[in-house]
Amino acid sequence: xxxxxxxxxxxxxxxxxxxxxxxxxxxxxxxxxxxxxxxxxxxxxxxxxxxxxxxxxxxxxxxxxxxxxxxxxxxxxxxxxxxxxxxxxxxxxxxxxxxxxxxxxxxxxxxxxxxxxxxxxxxxxxxxxxxxxxxxxxxxxxxxxxxxxxxxxxxxxxxxxxxxxxxxxxxxxxxxxxxxxxxxxxxxxxxxxxxxxxxxxxxxxxxxxxxxxxxxxxxxxxxxxxxxxxxxxxxxxxxxxxxxxxxxxxxxxxxxxxxxxxxxxxxxxxxxxxxxxxxxxxxxxxxxxxxxxxxxxxxxxxxxxxxxxxxxxxxxxxxxxxxxxxxxxxxxxxxxxxxxxxxxxxxxxxxxxxxxxxxxxxxxxxxxx
Length: 369
What we know:
Number of domains: 2
CATH topology of the largest domain: Rossmann fold
CATH superfamily of the largest domain: Translation initiation factor eif-2b, domain 2
Largest sheet: 7 strands, mixed
Shape: globular
Number of strands: 16
């Protein structure tokens, strides 16, 4: 099945089968455009755990639809509330770092609590999952509007092309729509502000090279893929005007977990006086914790992701072995950037400095999730 990334969301209800949720299968990009069908709760868990879907906001939306399917199956099998609770815990453990996962689960569960399990509650759950996705998309659109103002301000001073360095994928593919870090970039492009994006490979899964470069190309935005260790060199030679990344979890004092390697970019940016921005919706803030280094769980994934790399060979996607399989491997998926290294957060509610006092405004703001 073909998908049009520019004009459609990354997760949607099937027109042919109203009981099925469809999403872009990111495991095959950029070489093949495939759609993954989620028709059961186990499909939703698989999609999140095996990186069919990636990016905190999209994981949250997938989790919301996953809980809808769990509730639907519990009603059909008459298995009771206990089965739904078990499913929620299973889903919660599928990717532990991204707080959006928990937000998506809780949003649907809160809608159906104190209701008897029947077909009406299934409709309530589906409506809740759809609302969650709609709200998530709207938040990302608003991030784009606030972030655009920053890019526009830099352009007015520089009067020439803006070079932006990003890490991992924080574009449309990481969200229901628009993107987080790339949302302001897309809006700047629409408004004819010249931008060029330095795209980190983001080893070991290569989300930058495979996903970010793919969607920038789809939107005809100038970009260059670089090795992960190149960013500091570019900053030293004044070839980066700003760093713009997404996030998987942000504490109430501003410590931020994002794809492994983000912390090193923040250090290089700080040393070279390059502004370092984190773009994230309210769903990515976790106001229940303070210290990111000690309180954010860091996911460790399978060693095979480091041992092998995917590529296209003879028109087939193949795995290439990189190291001896007997060699020990550590595969940390995320690191934490301390708030002191972050210039500001670009959120759907505005731009906020990375400190507890300014972020308390967000904490006290009532939002959908």
